[in-house]
Amino acid sequence: MPKSLADGHIKLAILTTAPANLAAPTVAELNAGINAACRILASDFTFGPTDSDKVAEKALCDINNVNAIGASNYQAGLTIFRYFNAATGVADPTEDSLFTATKVKGTTLYIYARETGKLETSPWATSDEIFLGGAVLTDTPQRPSDAGGYIKRRVPMEPQSMFPYIAVA
């Protein structure tokens, strides 16, 4: 079987209301969310597990350090492209919906990401593997240090309840 490139294969739904089951969102719940993949800068998208906490559990007889794996840790953050009406300069209420959903510090959102051999444009389907999903808290959006390119804002996030490798219900 061939390997799959990641380019264009990450589907990302951001929900402003919690699904009935955080660990098993339905197709309808995912479709009701913001389809975010085309609104996020790829180069600094961070959403995934990081190293777990380590618990030193060395026995008296051990010569080397011995660690047990403790609590899981996750990271989340994304840079969102802004969308404005060219004539008025006012944020477009439809196209800028992702920024609107993330701009208030402390907002709880629910993020679900699919990264499979399917293109991002393929609709959500029952049994799709979600590589990570769950609740995050937004921090204050930040203006990037590089003012060039498109207008955008970096939104750091704090993962709350994360579920790796779940499936669409």
Descriptive key words:
globular; seven-stranded antiparallel sheet; Elongation Factor Tu (Ef-tu), domain 3; mainly beta; two-stranded antiparallel ribbon
Write up what this structure looks like.
This protein is mainly β. Helices cover 7% and strands 37% of the residues. The chain contains two helices and nine strands. It has helices spanning 27-32, 97-102; strands at 10-15, 34-35, 46-50, 54-56, 67-69, 73-81, 108-115, 129-138, 152-167. The chain is globular, with a radius of gyration of 19 Å. InterPro entries: TTP_Phage_16. Pfam families: Phage_TTP_16 (PF25595).
Tell me briefly what this model is:
Pfam families: Phage_TTP_16. Helices cover 7% and strands 37% of the residues. It has 169 residues and is mainly beta.
Furnish the topology, listing elements before pairings:
Elements: E1 10-15, H1 27-32, E2 34-35, E3 46-50, E4 54-56, E5 67-69, E6 73-81, H2 97-102, E7 108-115, E8 129-138, E9 152-167
Antiparallel strand pairs: 1-2, 1-7, 3-6, 4-5, 6-9, 7-8, 8-9
Total number of helices:
2
CATH topology description: Elongation Factor Tu (Ef-tu), domain 3
Q: How do the strands of the widest beta sheet line up side by side?
A: 2-1-7-8-9-6-3
Q: What is the CATH architecture annotation?
A: Beta Barrel
Poorly predicted ranges: none
CATH class: Mainly Beta
> What is the string of SSEs from the N terminus onward?
EHEEEEEHEEE
The beta-strand count equals 9
Which of globular, elongated, flat, extended, rod-shaped describes the shape? globular
Radius of gyration: 19 Å
Strand content: 35-45%
Largest sheet: 7 strands, antiparallel
Residues in helices, as a percent range: under 10%
* Total of domains: 1
Q: Kindly state the mean pLDDT as a whole number?
A: 95
Straight-line distance between termini: 27 Å
SS content category: mainly beta
